[in-house]
């Protein structure tokens, strides 16, 4: 108990000394040891890295899970070291509602059939979203969180220790400065030869004794200053090495960012493919879209991020869809058939891929017809003097 009380008293004295030194520095009454410019730049870069990592982490969590209540629930599960329960995605929930609606409203009706097809697509979109969230959490969020909860806490601890070492050093400097000033004053007073005829010659003796005491105090302060300087230099070197490690952190975060982009590219490529498949399937129903004779595209199988990103589908071009020989056919030289032309309303905007196609604007009316041997997914469209190929899935035949 006696040892603990002594240690407590010693710690209290050190804390009080640091507090006094810090307060005097704030009021400009004490000198402060400044760090070199390189060290200050390392500190500024570390603080900037920490602040922006926190912002990127929080906003990525919002992107992956927009529901704040769900984010709070997941945070609590992580703090309690419990597994986060599986949560259905919004797309999967929408698919469930559509499937139930189709079952109740009639799965054989045009509306019911469409609900079933859209429900299947939404279910695949929801599964793709689930995979994206899982991959992004592991490859991107986890490394950022590990930096904030691991490396940054270590850096912050060493920085606080460096701050304490600096306060101790500056307190020793101030104590030595005061001791030297007092020693010089006592020495000047002791150099005066006393008049022993005076009634109080003991003043000389007291001055000499005070000079010796202050001399001992100066020696003690110098020794404490050397110890404080050594500890400060050692702690500054440890902190500097940790701060220079921020460069390695940037390299690691750069790699994680590339993986996040890859997973996001894979996710959107899968969504694009699923919606193209759905669009082709919806084109089969009469009265809504012009149908095709090709079978529906099979569901997109799970692929690796590299494969999916490398094979991301693009808009079909006329040259790729047309049979051999037709790609070189100049539509401007082809006269429309005497019969078989129809009016069609454009459902969506369409940007022509090349000069053989006709750009379309939603809700405009054009004349369309088919040519012998032409791909059934395409028709020839006319608008005034302009003529070109148009995809049938973008049209609604009127007459």
If you had to describe this structure to a student in words, what would you say it looks like?
With 399 residues, the chain is α+β, with helices and mostly antiparallel strands. It contains 9 helices and 5 strands, in the order αααααααααβββββ. It has a 5-stranded antiparallel β-sheet with strand order 4-3-2-1-5, with no helix packed on it. α1 (2-26) packs across α5. 20% of the residues are buried.
Highlighted features:
5-stranded antiparallel β-sheet; single chain; 9 helices; alpha+beta; 399 residues
Number of strands: 5
Mean pLDDT: 78
From the helix content, strand content and strand pairing, which structural class follows?
alpha+beta
Helix content, binned percent: 55-70%
Determine the number of helices (DSSP H or I, runs of at least 4 residues).
Answer: 9
Question: What's the quick description here?
Answer:
This protein has 399 residues and is α+β, with helices and mostly antiparallel strands. Helix content is 63%, strand content 6%.
Could you give the topology of this structure?
Elements: H1 2-26, H2 37-64, H3 68-79, H4 90-105, H5 110-190, H6 202-244, H7 246-282, H8 305-310, H9 318-321, E1 342-346, E2 365-369, E3 378-383, E4 386-391, E5 395-397
Antiparallel strand pairs: 1-2, 1-5, 2-3, 3-4
Helix pairs in contact: 1-5, 2-5, 4-5, 5-6, 5-7
């Amino acid at each position: 108990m006696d040892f603990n009380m002594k240690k407590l008293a010693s710690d209290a004295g050190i804390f009080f000394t640091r507090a006094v030194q810090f307060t005097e520095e704030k009021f400009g009454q004490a000198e402060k040891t400044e760090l070199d410019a390189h060290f200050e730049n390392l500190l500024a870069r570390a603080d900037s890295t920490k602040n922006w990592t926190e912002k990127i982490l929080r906003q990525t969590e919002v992107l992956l899970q927009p529901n704040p209540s769900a984010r709070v629930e997941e945070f609590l599960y992580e703090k309690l070291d419990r597994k986060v329960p599986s949560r259905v995605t919004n797309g999967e929930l929408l698919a469930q509602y559509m499937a139930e609606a189709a079952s109740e409203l009639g799965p054989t009706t045009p509306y019911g059939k469409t609900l079933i097809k859209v429900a299947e697509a939404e279910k695949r979109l929801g599964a793709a979203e689930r995979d994206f969230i899982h991959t992004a959490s592991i490859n991107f969020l986890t490394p950022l969180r590990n930096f904030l909860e691991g490396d940054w806490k270590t850096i912050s601890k060493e920085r606080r220790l460096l701050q304490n070492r600096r306060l101790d050093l500056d307190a020793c400097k101030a104590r030595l400065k005061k001791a030297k000033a007092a020693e010089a004053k006592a020495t000047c007073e002791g150099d005066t030869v006393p008049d022993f005829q005076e009634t109080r010659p003991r003043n000389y003796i007291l001055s000499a004794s005070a000079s010796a005491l202050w001399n001992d105090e100066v020696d003690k302060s110098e020794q404490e200053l050397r110890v404080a300087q050594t500890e400060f230099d050692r702690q500054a070197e440890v902190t500097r090495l940790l701060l220079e490690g921020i460069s390695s952190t940037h390299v690691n975060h750069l790699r994680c960012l590339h993986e996040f982009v890859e997973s996001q590219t894979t996710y959107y490529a899968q969504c694009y493919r699923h919606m193209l498949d759905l669009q082709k399937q919806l084109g089969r129903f009469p009265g809504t879209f012009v149908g095709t004779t090709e079978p529906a595209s099979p569901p997109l199988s799970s692929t690796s991020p590299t494969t999916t990103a490398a094979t991301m589908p693009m808009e079909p071009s006329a040259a790729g869809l047309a049979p051999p020989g037709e790609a070189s056919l100049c539509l401007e030289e082809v006269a429309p058939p005497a019969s078989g032309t129809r009016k069609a309303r454009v459902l969506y905007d369409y940007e022509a891929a090349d000069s053989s196609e006709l750009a379309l604007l939603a809700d405009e009316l054009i004349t369309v017809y088919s040519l012998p041997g032409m791909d059934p997914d395409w028709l020839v469209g006319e608008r005034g003097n302009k003529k070109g190929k148009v995809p049938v899935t973008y049209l609604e035949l009127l007459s």
